[in-house]
Amino acid sequence: MTRDDPPVRIRLGQELKDLVQEAAKNNRRSMNAEINARLEESFGIVPEDTPLPRSAPGTGWIKAAKRAAAGGSPDERLSKLEAEVRELKAGLLELRQARQDGPETA
């Protein structure tokens, strides 16, 4: 999306506007960018450079890994963290493959 794209005026109810505004704030982007991202997602259009929103599922992995590795000996904690890393790598590979396959196979 560029500044050369045609502007579109829409009306939103106050409650929906507040929800979009809060989501934009949480995802550290403008309301316009939030609306565009949500529309692109709903139509299966996901640009390559789109970051995951902070509230996306799976973004709390650091806390989960710390909880998983909280107890036990240093070797046990390291093993738990290594398992978490393997799981994350598998998830990343899956996301990359889905992105390469495109929305029609997702």
TrEMBL record:
Q: Which InterPro entries match?
A: Arc_DNA-bd_dom, Arc_rbn_hlx_hlx, Ribbon_hlx_hlx
Instruction: List UniProt keywords, sorted A-Z.
Output: DNA-binding
According to UniProt, the name of this protein is Arc family DNA-binding protein
The Gene Ontology terms for molecular function here are: DNA binding
Q: Does the keyword DNA-binding apply?
A: yes
Q: Which GO terms describe its biological process?
A: regulation of DNA-templated transcription
> A Pfam family matched by this chain, by name?
Arc
Annotated ranges, domain Arc-like DNA binding: 3-43
Signal peptide limits: none
Lineage at the top is:
Bacteria, Pseudomonadati, Pseudomonadota, Alphaproteobacteria, Rhodobacterales
